């Protein structure tokens, strides 16, 4: 009889096991942050990004589905620096899950502790500037993103302390790998130091600066503001093939205007991969960086070979 009870206990314990081993439910605003969460959380997390790879996270709309998803989440990770100012505050306001609101154990502002570049002297928020707190696209440069990875690790440890050792060692591994990869590409770019590039939106700036390139201008007069014909004409009359080697754009911006500027200056228009998952082989932030760095270097080396 005793054995029977013990067996029953064993069987029910086995049935309960999956629940006891359930993964943490993590929601992020972008696929880049989701990749960092997977990097640090490994098998302990199930992560969903609220934006898809080819969606510009500046311009999402809050939906009831987002409210439901973060309501069921153990951890919510947002990019910060006001990248998601148009939609995340509304989603957070609607959720009943207090933990994932700012200040709660389940909330991570991944930008915490990062020094933003391009902080405007005067904010042009009222004119539609979508970078009022400085450039929010720090995940494009894996070493800058190390601080985001630290913030994510701290968040995972807050809500799941028993796996703290795993999160810490995954964080260490990420830091070591990103240091190594970025150093390798800096070396490859050394012969091209200070090469001038024009960007469409200030999206890749952390990466371009890290690689030693010189961002001489942007097609958008302010981040998020479409260029006027006058601004385009000004770019074309100011720059030439000596001062600029390429125009860089994300696929969700106006490729026609990008091409117009590039053609008039006489340089190539290069479409880069803006987020994790937006191109083949961009499954994490380090692979994304390497893919984009390779594309830029191919253009520079092709030109050098002419
Ligand atoms: Zn932006």
Note down, in words, how this protein is organized:
- With 306 residues, this protein is an alpha/beta fold.
- It folds into two domains: 19-179, Rossmann fold, CATH 3.40.50.1980; 184-305, 3-Layer(aba) Sandwich (Rossmann fold).
- It has helices at 2-20, 31-41, 64-71, 88-94, 146-159, 164-189, 205-210, 229-238, 255-265, 285-305; strands at residues 24-28, 45-49, 75-78, 107-109, 196-199, 214-218, 246-249, 269-271.
- Strands 2-1-3-4 form a four-stranded parallel sheet, covered by helices on one side.
- Strand 3, helix 4 and strand 4 form a beta-alpha-beta unit.
- The protein binds zinc ion (ZN).
- The site of zinc ion has 9 residues, from loops.
- The site of zinc ion (ZN) has 9 residues, from loops.
Q: Would you spell out the secondary-structure blueprint of this structure?
A:
Blueprint lengths: L1 H19 L3 E5 L2 H11 L3 E5 L14 H8 L3 E4 L9 H7 L12 E3 L36 H14 L4 H26 L6 E4 L5 H6 L3 E5 L10 H10 L7 E4 L5 H11 L3 E3 L13 H21 L1
Parallel strand pairs: 1-2, 1-3, 3-4, 5-6, 5-7, 7-8
Helix pairs in contact: 2-5, 5-6, 6-10, 8-9
This protein binds zinc ion (ZN).
Radius of gyration from the CA trace? Answer: 22 Å
Number of domains: 2
| % residues in beta strands | 5-15%
Bound molecules: zinc ion
| CATH architectural category of the largest domain | 3-Layer(aba) Sandwich
The helix/strand class is alpha/beta
Query: What is the distance, rounded to the nearest whole angstrom, between the alpha carbons of the first and last residues?
Result: 87 Å
The DSSP helix count reads 10
Read across the widest sheet, the strand sequence of neighbours is: 2-1-3-4
In one word, what is the shape?
A: globular
At the fourth CATH level, what is the homologous superfamily of the largest domain?
Answer: Nitrogenase molybdenum iron protein domain
Mean pLDDT: 93
Helix content: 40-55%
**Main sheet makeup:** 4 strands, parallel
């Amino acid at each position: 009889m005793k054995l029977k009870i013990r067996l029953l206990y064993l069987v029910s314990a086995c049935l309960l096991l999956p629940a006891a081993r359930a993964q943490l439910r993590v929601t992020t605003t972008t696929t880049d942050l989701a990749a960092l969460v997977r990097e640090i959380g490994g098998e302990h997390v199930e992560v969903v990004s609220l934006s898809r790879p080819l969606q510009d996270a500046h311009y999402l709309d809050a939906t009831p589905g987002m409210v439901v998803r973060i309501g069921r989440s153990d951890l919510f990770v947002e990019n910060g620096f006001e990248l998601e100012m148009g939609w995340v505050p509304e989603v957070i306001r609607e959720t009943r899950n207090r933990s994932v609101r700012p200040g709660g154990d389940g909330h991570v502002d991944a930008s915490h502790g990062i020094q933003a570049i391009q902080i405007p002297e005067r904010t042009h928020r009222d004119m539609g500037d979508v970078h009022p707190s400085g450039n929010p696209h720090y995940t494009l440069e894996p070493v800058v993103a190390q601080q985001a990875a630290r913030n994510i690790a701290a968040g995972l440890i807050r809500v799941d302390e028993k796996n703290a050792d795993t999160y810490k060692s995954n964080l260490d591994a990420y830091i070591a790998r990103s240091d190594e990869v970025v150093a390798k590409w800096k070396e490859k770019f050394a012969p091209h130091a200070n090469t001038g590039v024009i960007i469409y939106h200030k999206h890749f700036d952390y990466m371009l600066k890290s690689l030693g390139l010189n961002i001489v201008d942007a097609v958008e007069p302010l981040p998020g503001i479409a260029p006027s014909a006058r601004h385009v004409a000004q770019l074309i009359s100011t720059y030439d093939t000596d001062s600029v080697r390429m125009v860089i754009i994300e696929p969700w911006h106006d490729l026609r205007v990008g091409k117009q500027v590039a053609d008039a200056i006489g340089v190539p228009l290069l479409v880069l991969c803006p987020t994790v998952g937006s191109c083949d082989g961009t499954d994490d932030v380090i692979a994304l960086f390497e893919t984009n760095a390779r594309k830029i270097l191919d253009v520079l080396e092709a030109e050098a070979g002419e």
